[in-house]
């Protein structure tokens, strides 16, 4: 088995990664697993450790998977490529590549980035339970904090929240406020066909509310017979 062949090197690498984390994250176990065909190249605490063959990194409530990872122990950073995914609670991210900073608990994703997030709504259903919406976003670049789940995405950015769709050049999300701020050639289409074109819009992700601003704003409504 690959785990037996890599045991000594991989354990040493794990110890170096844990040692590189800040005090706030020092109590988190970092677990690295490789597939049956996995292999590693370890170059010491100050060098890069290359992990290949189905890499899975777990720390706290975050799980990262990829085909290949290059980890710098001293810096506490990892570069992952090949079918990269990051799962944390109700958030799932996918991309071609990811640069993860284990000290700052941040990640930068590039190439075919896709985010999916479950968001509890303020509105309740007929049984009194809060409704849950699914946010789906695609972009070219995304910088996210795995502490707060706040993120900045650049694009083009495309967003779908239930029947609502939006496009912009940039999107910034505050998890505490449940607000997506869209800037740059913003276009929003509602579930009933209404549209808004503007320079900037704040899209509330936990309720149906939009705040738009900018010069030359254009709003189109559909009047049904």
Beta-strand segment tally: 14
Helix content: under 10%
So how many helices? 1
In terms of DSSP E residues, the strand content is over 45%
Notes on the protein architecture:
With 225 residues, the chain is mainly beta. The chain has 1 helix and 14 strands. Strands 1, 2, 3, 4, 5, 6, 7, 8, 9, 10, 11, 12, 13 and 14 form a 14-stranded antiparallel sheet that branches. The longest helix is centred in the N-terminal third of the chain and has 19 residues.
How are the secondary structure elements laid out?
Blueprint: H1 2-20, E1 30-34, E2 39-42, E3 48-59, E4 62-72, E5 77-88, E6 91-101, E7 106-124, E8 130-145, E9 151-161, E10 164-174, E11 179-189, E12 195-204, E13 210-213, E14 218-220
Antiparallel strand pairs: 1-3, 2-3, 3-4, 4-5, 5-6, 6-7, 7-8, 8-9, 9-10, 10-11, 11-12, 12-13, 12-14
List descriptors.
8% helix; 225 residues; elongated; 1 helix; mainly beta
